[in-house]
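Homework-ish question, so no full write-ups if that breaks the rules, but can someone show me the predicted structure for this set?
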Amino acid sequence: MVSAVDVPEETSAGAPVEIAVNRESCCGAGQCALAAPAVFTQSEEDGLVLLLDPNPPAELRDAVRRAQSHCPSRSITIR
Amino acid sequence: MPLDGSEVWLVTGHDLVRRMLADPRWSSSVEGGLSEDQPLHLKQPEPGMFIEMDGSEHARYRRMLTARFTVQRTNRLRPRIEQIVAERLDAMERLPRPVDLVAEFALPVPSLVICELLGMPYEDRAEFQEAARAFVRLDSPAEEIEAAMARLIGHLAKLIAAKRAEPDDALIGELVREGVLTDGELVQISMLLLVAGHETTANMIGLGTLLLLQHPDQLALVREGAPGAADELLRYLSIVDVVMFRGAKEDLTLGGQRIRAGEFGLASLGAANRDPALCEDPDRLDVTRPKTAHVALGFGPHQCLGQNLARLELEVAFQALLRRFPGLRAAVPLEEVPVRENSAIHGVHSLPVTW
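A: Not a homework solution, just the prediction itself:
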């Protein structure tokens, strides 16, 4: 069953993912760092999101989508 | 739906609950609704009580704390949490059986962890635990809650004065040294973190153990170290269920319903977590499930600040308990375990176990 929060099927295999984060709205829950630790981390200074890799390879697409879906402050955009 | 007899919008679907809790038009500055003598109303939060604040006011306080609860920083606490858990298990082993798992393990572990993290004396735990229980009991008269809160505030004020004189390296001591917050704000923040750190994790360990004893196959998987167990137990149990009240600040539409400014809404985290749109077969406990987008820790800018600490405590506590006592079992029939019925947070009063 496909639902609103399931990670959708791979659509554009091969193309790198383009990501942007909003540190203004971020609430430092750390869900993104749990879902995709190669892409997101939390600043030691303020606990808010830091983007380790704004263009992660396609194989991380599912993890990035999960991070986006789990983010409570909706601070992750995938272009 | 609220126990004060008034009418609110009950929000149950996973998508709608997330939309509501992420929507800044719903205010968190809400009080009451849990008993007849305290009707739901909007309130002016005390300075520092940021769980009741909205927008930038909330963010200002939360951001003073987020760096202390990150995934990385929490993970550095693992050895200390493992040590605290092992010491409690040692103490349990020395007791005559049956042992009450709640009194000897489920409550002391998070209590020790949060007291140490904040720099609060564990000797004062009775005070914190009693106040925390009074806040979440649905049948506490308003005066009793106020009295418990007043005692706790008095106690915390003394502790904070001591920290001003001699700041330590724990969380509250660091905040004191940073010099930004007033004593009143520090009291409110300490109270919030203490109560949040006590009532949630303790009930998850107690009720979670009972649930696993009812599901031996799942218990075996947790003992073997199923990595997603903590999140699945959080989702399945949803111990914080129907207490998420919000007040509409302006007219809005949710799920096709027109909601007027001044009306109240209640997000059922438990219903959202059992929504078939969230995951397959939501009524089944499956600790091997990939992590779901459950809302057991809330959603939106208020989502649990201590969630990574909670995950770590639950993971360590369940695994260590089940490995130490492979023959762990309830010492009474499971249906006789006293469940908390008059509490805003689900849990068990006690859980007599043997092994």
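Now go work out the reasoning yourself. Hint: The mean pLDDT of chain A is 88.
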